[in-house]
Amino acid sequence: MIAEHKTDVSTNRTIGSLKGQQEGPLVVLLTGMHGNEYIGVQAVEEVLGILKDSDGLVRGKALAIRANLKALKHKVRYIDEDMNRIWFPSIIEKIRTTPEESLSSSERVEVKRLLRVLDQIENQYGSYPTIMVDIHTFSAEGSMFTLPDQEPGQIDLLSEIYAPMVLGIGRSLHGTALKYYQKRGLFSFGLEGGQHENSVTKKNIIASVMLLLRAVGCIDSEGYRPEMMEDFQKHLKSQTHHLPVQTEVVYQHLIEEGDDFKMRPGYKNFQPVKEGQWLASDRSGRIVAQCDGYVLMPLYQQQGREGFFIIKEQE
Ligand SMILES: [Zn+2]
């Protein structure tokens, strides 16, 4: 196994990369698209550390990247605008053709720099798959989950992680990097690891990424640190066994500028809600659930435009 630390000193965009002796898939671990979600960066650093120390990556390549460096430095979701809501082909094209000094926000500069790394990955498409994992955390308490697209291959692969899958987020969330790359045919999914600061979140992400690397063959499925891998599996199962396996987004509450949105306290991911239940308030009064289901990603932080989602179990 070859460990590359081609860390770009001026930007530190690359966390690190590992290459196995044998050919295999490329797994891209994208972290820190939101700067307050730095636990994802730390988790991925630990994954690379574990694999490096134990010579664990035998096939393919794992590449870990930080997305929004300036926001990570300040531990805020974003500096000028949400970096994960501007991935529309027209905006991306404009970012590509505009010199950095003329770009209108810190995040557009970050996207331009990130594209230099991600473009190389896109050009590497070979006989082995490229898999991109977009790693996030969230402000509410409650279980981790994954955001696959509808592709059956993804759903099979993600069932190896034992986290609930939430489908159809792309229908309500626009301008995400995930949606942009899925549309371009890159096998990519979101990993929402847990609450930003909860101590279990880092382990959730480490365990998920390790099980994923094993599922795609980068780590040997037998023989590689069986006790540790079993522990990861048990950990994730214990977090998620009581939750629906496959759900889909049925409702999204969008916040407008100046709404003064406030989620009522105590809501967690996958908490069941009934139609008409009082979930939040804003300047126009009470906001109630539009339908029965489970609440997802209720917003308990200042920055962010989605107040909450309601999801339903897929039949
Ligand atoms: Zn995020």
Description:
The chain has eight helices and 17 strands. The chain folds into two domains: 239 residues, Zn peptidases (Aminopeptidase), CATH 3.40.630.10; 67 residues, RNA polymerase II/Efflux pump adaptor protein, barrel-sandwich hybrid domain (OB fold (Dihydrolipoamide Acetyltransferase, E2P)), CATH 2.40.50.100. The protein has a seven-stranded mixed sheet with strand order 1-2-4-3-5-9-7, with helices on both faces. It has a five-stranded mixed sheet with strand order 8-10-17-16-13, with no helix packed on it. A three-stranded antiparallel sheet has the order 11-14-15, with no helix packed on it. A hairpin with a 2-residue loop joins strand 14 and strand 15. Helices cover 30% and strands 29% of the residues. It is an alpha/beta fold and 315 residues long. The protein binds zinc ion. Zinc ion binds next to loops.
For the record, the CATH class of the largest domain is Alpha Beta
What class would the helix/strand composition place it in? alpha/beta
| Largest β-sheet summary | 7 strands, mixed
Associated small molecules: zinc ion
Tally of individual helices: 8
Estimate what percentage of residues fall within beta strands: 25-35%
**What's the number of domains?**
2
CATH architecture classification of the largest domain: 3-Layer(aba) Sandwich
Major sheet strand order = 1-2-4-3-5-9-7
Q: Termini distance?
A: 44 Å
CATH superfamily of the largest domain: Zn peptidases
